Amino acid sequence: MKKITDIVKDSGCTGEPFRAPCPLDMGRKQKVSVVALGDVGTTMVIGLRLLGEPVIEEIGIFDISRANMDRLEMEINQIGWPDREQRPMPPVKTIDEDEIFHSDLVIFCASRGVPPVEPGTPVTDVRMVQLEANRKIISHYGELARAQEFKGLFCVVSDPVDPLCGAFLDASGLEPYQIRGFGLGVMNMRAAYLAEREERFSPYLKDGRVFGPHGSGLVAANSISDYDDQISRELTELTTAANLKVRDLGFKPFIAPALSSAALSVISLLQGRWHYSSVFMGKAYLGMRNRLTPDGTELEDLDLDPQLYSRILESYMDLAALRD
User: Fold this and answer.
1) What is the CA radius of gyration of the chain?
2) Using one digit for the tens of pLDDT, what is the confidence trace for 93-137?
3) Contact, 43 vs 258, CB < 8 A?
4) What Å distances lie between residue 319 and 94, 168, 237, 289, CA to CA?
5) Which residues on neighbouring strands pair with residue 181, listed in sequence order?
6) Which value, to the nearest 10 degrees, does the dihedral of the CA atoms of residues 207, 125, 247, 235 take?
7) Quick count: other Cβ atoms within 10 Å of Cβ 81?
8) Crossing angle for the helix pair 185-197 and 229-240, nearest 10 degrees?
9) What pLDDT shows up at residue 318?
10) What is the C-alpha separation between 120 and 247, in angstroms, rounded?
């Protein structure tokens, strides 16, 4: 049986970067900076405000629109429990661009080039359409991180997540373990949504998994212990297309990604809990279940069915080719 860690040597890469040290002091609350406050960024910050108090000290927000920053500083700081003294929430403050990397963890949500939603028109996967435009944006922040010698963790939420992690790595000169992608959490929940509604997918709820990128190249496994390749490929196709169904109704599918992939997954990471995120595997970033410990990243290194492993390796090689 192959394991996920075999990807490194089987792809021709060298080293074991997932055993690199932890870029955060896991014993204290973290200062978080958020870049860009569009639909995803705003929804994510609301989630961090509501649930992040155990692990987040404060949330700095930056957007190219000063008015939007000021509006959200007021609105989000006005979210709270009636018994606010007993149920505190991390404060939100506006920051300037040169303050973004004065934090422990930066979450990048900036995006450009999302096709407009037009009900009744054909839809395609928009994520790769965004790559070139978003690569330019993230490279700018990579240069800022390099100039300020950032020592913390940079989290990519913008699409396409995994290639943008690589773009930031190239621009910033940071260590690979200082960068993570957060796009796979919602794919796990989309697969679970399907499994709750169709019996043939129900094993996913017990021990199914997703691997790879957020979008084309995703690998869904109906079950780790009793893998069925045909059912898993069908589940993969439906999970990958789930966002297109929302777009076909005339809406942008941002709520579930902002919360499942970003806010809840980031909080889980800071708590040292198992979650889905993309980690560096020798050449490219690959999404999988893992957790961050004081000693570094621990992958869920399960025995994988040969057909499943072959699918994951193929997905990884496609991601690696984007960095050539």
Assistant:
1) 19
2) 999 999 999 999 999 999 885 555 555 555 455 555 678 889 999
3) yes
4) 35, 15, 18, 18
5) 156, 278
6) -20
7) 11
8) 110
9) 95
10) 10
Q: Per the omega criterion (within 30 degrees of 0), is the bond before 160 cis?
A: yes
**Distance of CA 234 to CAs 23, 74, 192, 201, 253, Å?**
38, 45, 14, 9, 21
Identify whether the C-beta of residue 55 lies closer than 8 Å to the C-beta of residue 267: yes
- For residue 158, CA distances in Å to 14, 25, 86, 135 come to 28, 25, 35, 10
Amino acid of residue 132 = E
pTM, two decimal places: 0.94
**CA-to-CA separations, 28 to 59, 60, 230, 262, in angstroms, rounded:** 15, 17, 45, 20
Give the span between the Cα atoms of 213 and 183, in whole angstroms. 7
d(CA 47, CA 163): 25
Q: Tell how strand 56-62 and strand 30-35 pair up.
A: parallel
Q: What distance in Å separates the CA atoms of residue 300 and residue 72, rounded to the nearest whole number?
A: 37
Helix H or strand E encompassing 277:
strand 275-280
Under DSSP, the state recorded for 178 is: G
* Cα→Cα distances 109→99, 199, 238, Å: 16, 36, 25
Mapped onto helix, strand or coil, the DSSP state of residue 226 is: coil
- pLDDT of 224 strictly over 50: yes
